[in-house]
Amino acid sequence: MGKKKKAAVEKEIAFQETYTRYTEFDIHLFKTGKHFKLYEKMGAFPVTFNGKKGTYFSVWAPNARAVSVIGNFNHWTSGKHVLNPRWDESGIWEGFFDDIQKGEAYKYAIHSNTGDYLEKADPFGIFCETPPKTASIVWENNYPWSDEDWLEHRKNISGKPQPYAVYELHLGSWRRKAEEGNRSLTYPELATELVDYVKEMGFTHVEFLPVMEHPFFGSWGYQITGYFAPSSRYGNPDDFMYLVDSLHQAGIGVILDWVPSHFPGDAHGLYMFDGTHLYEHADMRKGFHPDWKSYIFNYGRNEVRSILISNALYWLDRYHIDGLRVDAVASMLYLDYSRKEGEWIPNEHGGRENIEAINFLKEFNEVTYANYPDVVTIAEESTAWPGVSKPTYLGGLGFGQKWMMGWMHDTLRYFKQDPVFRKYHQNEITFSIMYAFTENFMLPLSHDEVVHGKGSLLGRMPGDEWKRFANLRLMFGYMYTHPGTKLLFMGGEFGQSAEWNHDQSLDWHLLDYPHHQGVCKLIKDLNVLYRSEPALYHFGFDARGFEWLDYSDHQNSVIIFQRKSDKKEDQLIVICNFTPEVRYQYRFGVPFRGQWKEVFNTDDLKYSGSGVLNPGSLFTSPIRYHQYDYSLALTLPPLGIAVVKLEKEQAEFELEE
Fold it and tell me: Per residue in 387-399, pLDDT tens?
């Protein structure tokens, strides 16, 4: 061992004997891919050492020849604040400097074994400079949380049937300050304006497009460089905690988009971090994503798995997040995803399945639910991969829920049809029930459906203005009464007419117009209906909660189904008329004779409908229909849904209409 190397080892051992965040067991767990709280070890930590306040730094760069910290404190000059490699061959470099305090911007200057010189942001940095600046910032969180009641409530309802009505939004374009240069709202401003709005609308959860730091605003957050840092565009980490806390105090859960599928190649980011393919695969047939021109994590590397799962737990732990929606799961599962023949490498069995990614996803879910059994993980998975939301011990991937992409595509395709042709496409609106209970499905009308030339949801509806809005209300009513949890992207709740533009605010001025007001009122009331009627969520993932009464009336484009809970008195019957024709005295069988009542109708005047309702009590007749001895006759609203509920069962006598 050379004198310089020996001196460095002795210095590091002496440092470890007096101060280090690692034990031998930490290093063992890290090397074996089983350390899931690395955010307590790696990064920059303001501490007191030997009676002096300063900052401890720790970074993984196993192929570096030298690592130092650079910033304004040393005029961004490498070699002045030198980190030392740990003697245990973990590849971790660490050090303490009493002249670096909270609030300082910094990067790691890395001299690689390959001869490269790199300046990298901290992969574990919890705060970043505001883009286009790219440095990390020394920070510590001291936010005083006040969401104990929410966390206790979350714990108490865990495992019980519950409604999920999720409002998906992009923080930077939900609402902007036009009078201040069209700037986005800050986290504290959102803690007032967004919280009040979501509470008024009645959604149970919000889902944020990725809040983790990303250099390119136009990526919507899906090209992440700072996995542990909420974007500084809207404030500091404590500000984001305040937003989450405010949502919780208002009874609203928080779900984050999480992107372990790929990362960008920005010079300050994870790509070629220490001069080698540290986080990504060296072979670009596995390491490069052709769709997004980004890089794929090496899930077979133990340390990378530890870092990714630690990142997931970090948001659940430090930010009290209630769920993670995992982006682009399909791209992780298949080695040939978006690749032509010869552009991908089969697995060891000759197949197209990415075994390393599959094992990673299973472990991610197992560790998440072991540590936080009352949160939810949700997969954006667009294929027929079996068991995405089944437990791993049953051979599944272990997610709590899965986006029902097939339902979304079929529904939007059906609603684009002119109603006169819908009788030829009845199977598109009924097919989803064939597989609705094979997974724990969430019905998404997400951001992906209102971008890239697809137009808005309202813009896809056929017909004149009245018909377009009636179709939109009908689609939302169908969504809320269909089995599965719900997700709606911002703007859809009031009939945004333009495609989403991340550089602009939503078109809030549209709420000055009756049709848009009607859609907004409809969503409010649908959220009330969904949360107050157990039949709509008690068996949300179970065939016991659904029964067809009639799916075959394609000539009239009408479908009728029941939604059920474990109590007979909760039962609902949903009648959908997908044409603009009012259908008088439309008869259908019911399982119980007696007195029924219409509890919801999308054609109500308060929703800017035409007012074709079924007021008062509705009484069964002893006319056999749909294999039932009793039936009801209703007036079906044009392009509308009617929902009826049993008010009083008659056991001793029959009631005539």
Answer: 999 999 999 999 9
